[in-house]
Design a protein that fits this description.
It is a single chain. The chain has 218 residues and is α/β, with parallel strands linked by helices. The protein contains eight helices and six strands, in the order H-H-E-H-H-E-H-H-E-H-E-E-H-E. It has a four-stranded parallel sheet with strand order 1-6-5-2, with helices on both faces. Strand 5, helix 8 and strand 6 form a beta-alpha-beta unit. Helix 4 packs across helix 6. It binds zinc ion (ZN) (2 copies). One zinc ion (ZN) binds next to helix 2.
Length: 218
Amino acid sequence: MLDLLLPQRCVVCGCGGRQLCTACREGLPRIEPPLCARCGAPTAWPVERCRECAGRRLAFASARAAVGYDAAARRLVHAWKERGLRRLAAEVGQLVAERLPPPEVDALTFVPADRGRRLERGHNPAERLALELAVLWELPCVPLLERTRGGRQRGSSAAERRTVRGAFRPTAAALRRVAVIDDVYTTGATAAAAASALRAGGARRVEAVAFARALRRG
Ligand SMILES: [Zn+2]
Ligand SMILES: [Zn+2]
């Protein structure tokens, strides 16, 4: 409710008017082809696998994100997730639907929040984004995963890889083709662990879709 009462300010630049002003919205970095077919990293030319994902076992068929995770995207995600500015979920959903084609899947699902974080925030950002996208893309959204243990990691990539392996299990039989929604794609370890659990639950093909993606330089 808080965001209804506060004066509207852009969460990125602070200017008055809207929670995400037009300039900041347009300025969010685009992720444009050529991309790695698998992990969605921008590459010099189209490749099946890139330096970032080569040799890794990734249970998803492809990963795509709407914006690059720069400082502005980080501020937006922070406000959306931590400050509970829930109307930003609609804004974020619009951005994803504008910038990415709908995945060719039977249903959307989402990366589940760990219980502690969900209680703390009162919402799971990935779930809210999945619900927004379900409307925009006219696809069902079904909860299919749960966490096997707490501790959704933050911090280093190595820590993420260690922590998330085996972090999820299927709660229902997955549909044949599923897209798993998350807020940010960092190393891909979370998406891979979620996809692996969905495939264990019966999915044949899993696509990962995130709002923002960490971009490596050089
Ligand atoms: Zn702004
Ligand atoms: Zn790649």
